[in-house]
Structures are given as C-alpha cells and as structure tokens.
C-alpha cells in the first residue's frame, strides 16, 4: 500500500491531503524523495526502485520518541496512526488542516518514519489557486512530475479522487502557553520573544550559587509584557528614519501630509497665501446640530478613504509657497516615503504612506503649524 | 503474517468492507424495486434486445450512484461476457469536446486492442467513434457510456452529447448512455435538440430509510462465523454490536449525525472513524468509539478559528463587532484601532499593543478567513484603509469566545454592550 502525501497552501493556510492506493503490486517505476535517491552515474542501468525505496530511508523511531518530539500533539498523532491503520489495511482519504506552522507536515512525515511505510510526498505551490477540480488534477500531475518522469498515476486514481469523497478531517489546533497567547499564537513569531526571554531567564543562573526553581519565573514576569511588544519589531519598518532626515526632508514629509489630507486642489491658492485668511472665515460659521452630524460622517468617511493622491507638481508648488527655498535636491528623499500609482494619463501621482500622528509629530518638532493648513470641513 | 491478533484481523476486515463500495451496496440491491434492479433491467434489455437507451442517475453526493452502477455493470459482464464494452468519462476532466472524443477513442482502442494515435484530429476521432459504434452494433456488442458529473457535459455547446445521441439514432448501434449527476435538474440543462434524443428516464437516489440503515449497520459490522476467527470471539463481538445499536444513546447519536449528513458515504466515514478507534486489547467496539467519531465528524471550522485566536485578535474582533452594532456601514483598520483605543481608555485594560503588532494580528485573522476585505477593487489603497468585514456572525463569535481557553471577562462584557 503506497500513500500519497500532498501539501498545498491557500492564503497561507496549509492543508495536507493523504490518499492511499491499495494495489502495492502495481508499483512500477515510482521515484522517491530527491534526498533519498542516489543514482550511480557509472551504472547505465540503475536498478528499478522498489517499494522499499519509498520509505523514509532512515531508522524508524519509536512511538514514545515520536510523541516527545511533538509535545501537545499526542491526541492528533494517535488519531492519525489509528486512521492509517495496520499494514495492508485500506483507508479513506484524510485531510489534516490547521494554521501555518502548526506542525502538520512535520508530524505526518515523522509518523511515516515511525510506521516505516512507503509514501510519495509532493507539495503544490501556494501561489496557484484552484477554481475547478480539473485545475487541481492538472496541478497534481505537475507536482508529481518533477519527482521523476516515470510517475504515472493510473487513471483510476483520478476517478477515485474525483469522486469528491469528503476526506476524514484531523485538526491541529494551536498549542501555546497562556501568557504568550495574548498577542499571537504562532510559534515562529513567538520564537523571537522566547529567545530574548530565555536569555533573561538564564541571567540569574550566572550567579553559580542559584539553582533553577520557581523564583526564576517570577524574575521573568515583568519582562514578558515588554517582550510581547517586541514580537513584531523585527519586521516593521522603524520610525528611526525621520530623525535622521535633514531639515528640508522633514518639511517635505509634513507637506506631503498636507496635500494628501484631502485638501481640495482648488483651495490651495487661498489657503497658502501669506495671510491664511480663508480658514478664519470658515470657522466663524456657527455649527448647527445637523452640520455637526455631517461633520462626523464626513470625518468617518475621511478616515475610511485615507490620504488622497496628488501629482508631484502640486507638492512642489505648495513647498515653494511655504518655504522660500525651492530646492530640487529634496526630490529623492520624497520618493522614499511616497507610494506611486500610474493612472491612465501617464503622469505619476503620489500618496503619503506616513500616518497622521507621525506627520503631526514631525510638524511639532519643526514648529510648523500643520493643523492650520489641513482642510477640515 | 504469523499469528495475528483476532482483534486486528477483525479491524482489518471491517475497514476493508467500509472501503469497498461493492460490499456496501450489495444488500441494498436485493429488493426488486430497488435502484439496482431498475438500472439492471434497463441495461440488460438493451443488451438482449439490441436497442439503444439513455438514462440519468440523480442524487446527492455520496448516495451510491456510481457504486450501484458498478455493481450492475460487474454483474452484467459476468452474465454476458464479451458482449459489453464500458467507456467511462468524467465531466471534471473531459468536459471539453476535444478531450472527450480523444478519451473515448483511446478507451475504445484499448478495449479492442487497436493502436491509438495521440496525433489524431478531432474529426478523425469522431469518425472512428461512429465507425466503432456501427461495427459493434452489427456484432451485437453493447457499448455502455458512463458520463460522470453529467452536468459538466451539459455546459457550453453540448457537442459531445449531441454527437453521441445522434449517432445512436442514425447508425445501427447498440449503446447505452448513463449519466450520473448530483444536480437533480440535470436534464433541464440539456438543449432542445439533445433533449429530444434523450429518453427521459431518471433514477433518483434518495437518502436511506431507517430500516435500510439498521440493516446496513448489521451487514457491515457483524463478523462472519467462519473458521478464520475464534468462535467465542465472533459471538462476543456480534453481541456487543447488537447492544450498541439498540442503545437509545446510539440511536440519538445516529439521528444527530444523519440530520447533518444523510448520505450513505458519510455514514460509512462515521463508522470508519469509530471502528479505527477500537480498543485492540479488548477487541470489542464500544459506545465511546462512536461518540469520539461523532465529535470529529461534526466540526465547526469558524468556531475552531475563534477558539484559536490570541487575546489581541479577540480584542480586534470585538472592536469590529461593536462598530457593526453602532451601524457604521463600513470600517477599516484605522477605525478599528480608534475603537480599540477608546476601549483601552475607558476600561484601562492591560492588553494595549502598538500599531504594528495589531496590524500583524489583523493579518492573522485575514489568513484564517475570519475577516476579509469588503471589496476587491481599490487595490491601490494601503491595506490599513481598505474596508473590512467580519466573516463570522455575532453568535459564532460569542460561542467561540465563551469556549476560548483564556478569554478575558471584559471582552464578553464589551461584546454584549
């Protein structure tokens, strides 16, 4: 009995489908995992791979070793072994589902190592989505082909798959300790936290007189909260960029925000003339209740739409109004924090990627009255 | 093999039975008005009388249409050897006309030991098929065309169907076209000219009745009293099965399961799961096995997704729900963060994390498909400003949070208000 293990991803969620074929006698020239095949280039007629070549190829591990390798997965491992069943017993297709890095592939491969059964393993690329089952079959063919040009699935394998048999599900829930699951339950992300914490955990041990006990844990507690915020620090783009930017660059950031923040282009002239009188005139109008509601709704809408887009010329025009220097060397810096889109006209428009709070912060550091120039209805 | 544990042998035997559709559906074929008998009658008259016929097998997925057809074909091949040729097509793979004709030609060549050329064109294939139909008709050999997923063949121009049915009418042929579909209105999908050539015979595969299920259970789970098993063990095993099936708790479980999945196939999976967890030391099935099988078969993925969320992710979900309650028609990450901040300010919760951390949590929720972007266009906007929506209902969220391992009480309170 040969088993097929397929892994394929969809939106980062990984499923493993596992099917079996009963006729082991039909194993003709199926190839094995690439790490296991050793073809002798000198030998013109390499021996045909047998069923034994399809096993894991290393020493089998005991059940206890398997269970201890994957803590917290005891029930799923036992479930899987029971469903696969004893040797030469047929089984129905099984689907193992769960979040990314829940240990699905690892567990399945190690289970096969423990059971010492032959299997065929392939992964489907996660970038491809299957809209129709025929696409899936084609992907299957493609995925299995690189494993050896002689992997010929007999047609009845397709029919048994295409019968839409609902596979038996096994769920791999996330298993994480209590305090750490407040932010994320993904093991890979917590590993950064864990490495930091482990170092802190070991600190008192430097003092040779101390032996590991419960006190170490209490030493750890205050650091946990701090470290949880650090969890994603490694991947986000840091805010350290701004203090290092030159003075002019900062001003440019501020200006970008001005434009983006939904300032209608038509009001530019009146807003940025030296008196700035337009704003005062607007504020004198009495706020009735209806207009307050409208204002709220408009604010919400503005929050929903986010910053608008603007062409580069407008940016430079406003820059020239505010600052007496019209230095074109700022252009390169601007490009760093802008995102560009190419609409049909062919002229590139930019949009500010910087958040409102950050731009206000920068404006304050430059003592630039940003709020005066932001359009609020 | 050596001395095998009788329990293991019994396990293997039952598992083998459950995976073999022929075994499962054989007893359902007994009575004279069963689907098996009807189908067999139609096809055998076509063989004996030398006429053409067409028929549709309709029923939900897993109700045994293909299995019964296989039984019929198998029996007929035994009764009339060398008079039956079987051609199988699948709508998922061969719905395109070129592909279908090639496949038919290939299978015909294989059956009659002819050489098949992959380079043959569409016209050559279709001429070959018509010629074969004529030849087989003259030689009184029946060709049975099985079209699985028949509704897929009814898409597009229906060229294959028309050609086949037309050939059957014009040429001296002996062919039966059997369509299998899970769409009960499959025959309504046919074009006028195709429908006029199709006989309106339909066989419906309905969910099994209570009596049928009881007899099926007994048929599947009882061990045979032959010499391969110690006799004491066989009687003990069968006795236990009788006890379990007559237990009211088991009947309730079965009813709950059948309310959700009423087909034979899903019942087989349920039994398979239960049997696989049989205790090999005692060698007997127990009610517990069926209980565990039931809970694993009736899964609730959205509930599991919420139960697996981290606390921060739960906070975000609750914020989104509150925004919905406030009748804000659409919201995005920024508005959710505002709500999150207001909650933190008014309740002084201990879980307040930075924006980038929350963004990552949002991404996790999106990957698990608990939330998604509300529209697909507007891709040029940054992810934080795109409108989002919840993919779970309020009651699912509520239930998930209540069964969550460490959901803070404040969240449940916030959800209610």
Automatic annotation (TrEMBL), chain A:
Locations listed in the record: Nucleus
Top-level taxon of the source organism: Eukaryota
UniProt main location, coarse: nucleus
Any single Pfam family the record assigns to this protein: ORC5_C
Keyword tags: DNA replication, Nucleus
Residue segments, region Disordered: 24-47, 272-293
PANTHER family the record matches: ORIGIN RECOGNITION COMPLEX SUBUNIT 5
Descriptive protein name: Orc1-like AAA ATPase domain-containing protein
Organism, as annotated: Brassica oleracea var. oleracea
UniProtKB/TrEMBL annotation, chain B:
Entry annotated with the keyword ATP-binding: yes
GO cellular-component term (any): nuclear origin of replication recognition complex
Keywords linked to the UniProt accession: ATP-binding, DNA replication, DNA-binding, Nucleotide-binding, Nucleus
Main location: nucleus
Origin recognition complex subunit 4 C-terminal domain mapped to chain residues: 216-400
Domain of life: Eukaryota
GO MF entry, a single one: ATP binding
ATPase AAA-type core domain span: 55-201
Compartments reported by the entry: Nucleus
GO BP term (any one): DNA replication initiation
Alphabetical list of InterPro entries matching this protein: ATPase_AAA_core, ORC4, ORC4_C, P-loop_NTPase
Family: Belongs to the ORC4 family.
PANTHER family, alphabetized: ORIGIN RECOGNITION COMPLEX SUBUNIT 4
Physiological role: Component of the origin recognition complex (ORC) that binds origins of replication. DNA-binding is ATP-dependent. The specific DNA sequences that define origins of replication have not been identified yet. ORC is required to assemble the pre-replication complex necessary to initiate DNA replication.
Protein name: Origin of replication complex subunit 4
The organism of origin for this protein: Brassica oleracea var. oleracea
């Amino acid at each position: 009995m040969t088993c097929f293990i397929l892994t394929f991803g969809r939106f980062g969620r990984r499923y493993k489908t596992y099917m079996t074929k009963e006729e082991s006698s039909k194993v003709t020239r199926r190839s094995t995992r690439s790490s296991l095949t050793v073809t002798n280039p000198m030998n013109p007629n390499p021996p045909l791979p047998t069923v034994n070549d399809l096993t894991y190829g290393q020493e089998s591990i005991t059940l206890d070793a398997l269970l201890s390798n994957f803590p917290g997965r005891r029930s799923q491992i036992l479930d899987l072994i029971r469903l696969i069943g004893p040797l030469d017993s047929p089984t129905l297709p099984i689907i193992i589902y769960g979040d990314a890095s829940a240990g699905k592939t690892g567990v399945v491969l190690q289970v096969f190592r423990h059971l010492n059964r032959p299997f065929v393993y392939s992964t489907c690329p996660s970038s491809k989505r299957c809209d129709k089952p025929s696409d899936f079959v084609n992907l299957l063919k493609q995925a299995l082909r690189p494993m050896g040009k002689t992997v010929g699935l007999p047609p009845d394998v397709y029919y048994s798959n295409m019968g839409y048999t609902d596979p038996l599900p096994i769920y791999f829930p996330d298993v994480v300790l209590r305090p750490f699951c407040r932010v994320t339950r993904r093991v890979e992300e917590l590993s950064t936290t864990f490495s930091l914490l482990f170092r802190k955990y070991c600190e008192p041990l430097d003092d040779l007189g101390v032996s590991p006990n419960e006190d170490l844990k209490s030493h750890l507690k205050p650091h946990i909260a701090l470290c949880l915020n650090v969890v994603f620090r490694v991947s986000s783009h840091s805010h350290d960029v701004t203090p290092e930017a030159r003075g002019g660059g900062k001003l440019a950031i501020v200006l970008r925000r001005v434009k983006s923040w939904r300032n209608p282009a038509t009001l530019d002239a009146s807003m940025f003339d030296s008196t700035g009188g337009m704003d005062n005139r607007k504020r004198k109008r009495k706020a009735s209740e209806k207009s307050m509601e409208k204002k709220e709704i408009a604010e919400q809408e503005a929050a929903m739409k986010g910053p608008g887009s603007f062409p580069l010329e407008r940016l430079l025009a406003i820059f020239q109004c505010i600052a007496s220097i019209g230095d074109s060397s700022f252009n390169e810096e601007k490009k760093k924090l802008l995102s560009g889109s190419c609409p049909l006209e062919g002229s590139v428009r930019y949009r500010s990627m910087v958040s409102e709070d950050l731009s206000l912060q920068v404006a304050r550091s430059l003592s630039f009255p940003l709020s005066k120039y932001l359009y609020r209805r | 093999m050596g001395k095998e544990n009788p329990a293991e042998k019994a396990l293997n035997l039952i598992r083998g039975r459950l995976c073999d559709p022929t075994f499962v559906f054989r007893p359902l074929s007994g009575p004279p008005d069963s689907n098996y008998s009807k189908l067999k009658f139609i096809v055998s008259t076509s063989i004996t009388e030398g006429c053409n016929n067409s028929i549709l097998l309709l029923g939900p997925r897993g109700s045994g249409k293909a299995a019964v057809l296989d039984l019929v074909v198998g029996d007929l091949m035994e009764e009339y050897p060398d008079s039956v040729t079987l051609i199988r097509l699948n709508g998922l793979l061969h719905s395109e006309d070129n592909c279908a004709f090639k496949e038919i030609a290939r299978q015909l060549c294989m059956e009659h030991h002819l050489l098949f050329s992959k380079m043959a064109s569409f016209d050559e294939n279709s001429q070959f098929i018509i010629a074969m139909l004529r030849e087989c008709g003259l030689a009184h050999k029946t060709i049975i065309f099985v079209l699985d997923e028949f509704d897929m063949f009814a898409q597009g121009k229906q060229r294959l169907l028309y050609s086949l049915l037309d050939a059957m009418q014009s040429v001296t042929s002996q062919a039966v076209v059997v369509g299998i579909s899970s769409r009960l209105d499959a025959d309504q999908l046919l074009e006028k000219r195709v429908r006029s050539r199709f006989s309106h015979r339909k066989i419906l595969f309905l969910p099994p009745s209570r009596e049928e299920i009881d007899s099926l259970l007994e048929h599947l789970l009882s061990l045979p009293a032959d010499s391969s098993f110690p006799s004491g063990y066989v009687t003990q095993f069968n006795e236990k099965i009788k006890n379990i099936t007559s237990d009211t708790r088991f009947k309730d479980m079965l009813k709950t399961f059948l309310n959700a999945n009423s087909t034979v196939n899903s019942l087989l999976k349920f039994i398979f799961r239960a049997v696989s967890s049989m205790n090999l030391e005692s060698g007997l099935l127990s009610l517990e096995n069926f209980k565990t099988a039931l809970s694993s078969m009736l899964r609730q993925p959205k509930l599991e997704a919420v139960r697996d969320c981290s606390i921060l992710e739960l906070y975000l979900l609750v914020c989104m729900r509150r925004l919905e309650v406030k009748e804000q028609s659409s919201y995005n990450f920024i508005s959710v963060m505002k709500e999150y901040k207001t909650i933190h300010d008014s309740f002084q919760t201990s879980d307040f994390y930075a924006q980038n951390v929350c963004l990552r949590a949002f991404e996790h929720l999106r990957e698990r498909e608990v939330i998604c972007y509300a529209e697909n266009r507007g891709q040029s906007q940054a992810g934080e400003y795109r409108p989002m929506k919840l993919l779970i209902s309020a009651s699912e969220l509520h239930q998930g949070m209540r069964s969550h391992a460490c959901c803070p009480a404040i969240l449940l309170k916030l959800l209610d208000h």
